[in-house]
Write a structure and sequence with these properties.
Keywords: Membrane, Transmembrane, Transmembrane helix. Helix content is about 60%, strand content about 5%. The chain is of the alpha+beta class. The strands form 3 sheets. Strands 1, 2, 3, 4 and 6 form a 5-stranded antiparallel beta sheet that branches. A 3-stranded mixed beta sheet has the order 5-9-8, covered by helices on one side.
Length: about 550
């Protein structure tokens, strides 16, 4: 409670805004569970009349949109996590959007001029002050360099960092409360979710990070001219400004424009799949949001990628596990599927019989060819949720990217089978991971590790024998939750002590003070008695 009071005092104004919006939209369960309603600094509001007829998921989605960019990003993350939330909630949260009313040029122009070191009208040969896109984090403008290149200028919205940093502090504290006070929520790893959210948002608040992400992914395809990334114009970039080439492309869901440009949609779907899986399975770094606005069709059946605010990363171990998962799905191996899932969620303790039945049902329901990857992955995460398992965050990001990419490919080719299209990339990944040179490296690393452990073993055995002779071997036992029991005992002891003092005064000391007939003593005694009773009541209420 003391830490909550400190956090509340530090970010009092923002916390008040958050609680007001949540209460105003009728999202009272969250307010009550976090204990916000009872903090005296917060306003007392009744739910708005116009939202009382909405469902709980609708109320939450409306509240999140009103709360701003931090919460919108969090809501979008939750929308992609069917392993955490039921379909009623994820489907509603998928309606969240980052498109907001643009900041006026009068508000954003001075900041851009400060960052560029001169007026945009001087820096660029042409600059359109009307934004072509406006999101919760940044706005995008069209411009042309004096050298003739068409570029986009991405600018962070003013005064954003202070609000987001306050939100992240409050949300991180809320995650700690949830994890400590409700053990049944620990499987959702709220603090880990908040850490990933903070990393993502802090990355988006630094547009230099987006520029670096773009060049990192571009290097993977530097020998291919059919996968296009925008050129970064570093001389104009800073933390709040990004200038890159404007890619003249066609969204994959614009059927008329694709036909007019003579695009081979099936070929484009195959190329898009190859590119995404090359990034994820082979390189371990990938575009985390490949929606139709971020993957563009270009003349000559080329694909252009834009918007690199968030990228995903996969360790070599994760990529190996993914290959095992794909193999288990294709072979309809329920036991292999269950083994991978348990490996990913090792901290949980599920009902193994129930999980085995779920895994068998899963493989049977997805035995037909071609497989719909989006449906397969969504059902896979639903299976995890139904068995009280939560996916690791890095895999959840990948699955979201795969589901999104699969949807884009199906716009291009309704009969698209991503599993079949992934064959060449999967084989290349397996050859890379299980080649003789890779196995030799793993064997060498294992040998070095075993040699190090073996060299320390004699010393450890000798030390243990010496301590056994000296009787200095101790055993440490940690009882989970013991600190809560200790605090409970301390509070109970305090109540007993106060009760004894008050009772002693009432039965022994008070009559003697009254017999003395001294008004001052009587008054002091009554004050002590009243304070003791009040303290006892407070202790009882805060049990």
């Amino acid at each position: 409670m003391l830490k909550t009071a400190f956090v509340a005092a530090r970010d009092r104004q923002r916390l008040s805004e958050i609680a007001t919006i949540l209460i105003g939209f009728g999202v009272t369960r969250v307010v009550d569970r976090l204990g916000l309603r009872y903090l005296p600094l917060l306003p007392r509001r009744q739910p708005r009349v116009d939202v009382t007829r909405l469902s709980e998921p609708e109320r939450l989605r409306r509240a999140i949109e009103a709360l701003g960019p931090t919460f919108i990003k969090f809501g979008q993350v939750l929308a992609s996590r069917p392993d955490l939330l039921s379909p009623a909630w994820t489907e509603e949260l998928q309606k969240l959007h980052s498109q907001v009313v643009p900041v006026t040029w009068e508000q954003i122009g001075p900041q851009l001029e400060l960052d560029l070191g001169a007026s945009p009208m001087e820096i660029f040969a042409e600059f359109d002050t009307n934004p072509i896109a406006s999101a919760s984090i940044a706005q995008v403008y069209r411009a042309r360099l004096h050298s003739g290149e068409d570029v986009i200028v991405k600018v962070l919205r003013p005064n954003l960092r202070k609000i987001i940093e306050a939100d992240l502090r409050l949300m991180a504290h809320g995650a700690r409360i949830v994890e400590n006070e409700w053990p049944d929520m620990a499987r959702y790893q709220p603090r880990e979710q908040m850490r990933h959210l903070a990393e993502g948002l802090n990355g988006e608040l630094d547009l230099l990070n987006e520029a670096r992400n773009c060049e990192l992914l571009a290097q993977i395809f530097e020998d291919r001219d059919d996968i296009v990334f925008p050129k970064i114009h570093w001389e104009y970039c800073s933390e709040r400004v990004l200038v890159q080439d404007f890619i003249h492309g066609i969204p994959p869901n614009d059927e008329a424009a694709l036909r007019a440009a003579g695009i081979d949609k099936k070929l484009l779907a195959q190329k898009g799949t190859d590119a995404f899986l090359q990034m994820a399975l082979i390189e371990g770094v990938f575009h985390a949001d490949p929606h139709p606005g971020n993957m563009l069709a270009l003349p000559g059946n080329k694909i252009g990628f834009i918007d690199f605010g968030i990228i995903g990363r996969l360790s070599q171990r994760r990529r190996s596990q993914l290959l095992v998962l794909i193999g288990a799905m294709l072979k309809q191996d329920a036991d292999g599927l269950m083994a991978v899932l348990l490996d990913w969620t090792g901290t949980s303790n599920p009902d193994l019989t129930r999980l085995q039945v779920s895994a068998q049902s899963f493989v049977e329901s997805h035995s037909s060819i071609p497989l719909n990857l989006g449906l397969v992955l969504t059902d896979f995460m639903n299976m995890a949720r139904e068995n009280d398992l939560a996916m690791p965050t890095d895999l959840a990001i990948l699955f979201k990217g795969l589901v999104t990419a699969d949807g884009v490919m199906r716009h291009l080719d309704p009969n698209f089978d991503l599993f079949a299209a992934a064959g060449p990339t999967v084989r290349a990944s397996m050859q890379t991971q299980f080649s003789l040179s890779a196995l030799k490296q793993k064997a060498e690393a294992l040998g070095v590790g075993l040699y190090g452990a073996a060299s320390e073993l004699p010393t450890l055995i000798h030390l243990m024998l010496v301590r056994l002779k000296q009787g200095r071997v101790t055993v440490e036992i940690e009882v989970k939750g013991l600190d809560k029991v200790t605090r409970g005992i301390e509070r109970a002891a305090a109540r007993v002590a106060v009760a004894l003092v008050v009772a002693a005064f009432a039965t022994q000391l008070a009559p003697r003070l009254i017999d003395l007939g001294t008004p001052v003593f009587v008054s002091i005694g009554l004050i002590i008695f009243i304070l003791g009773i009040g303290w006892l009541v407070l202790l009882m209420r805060n049990k």
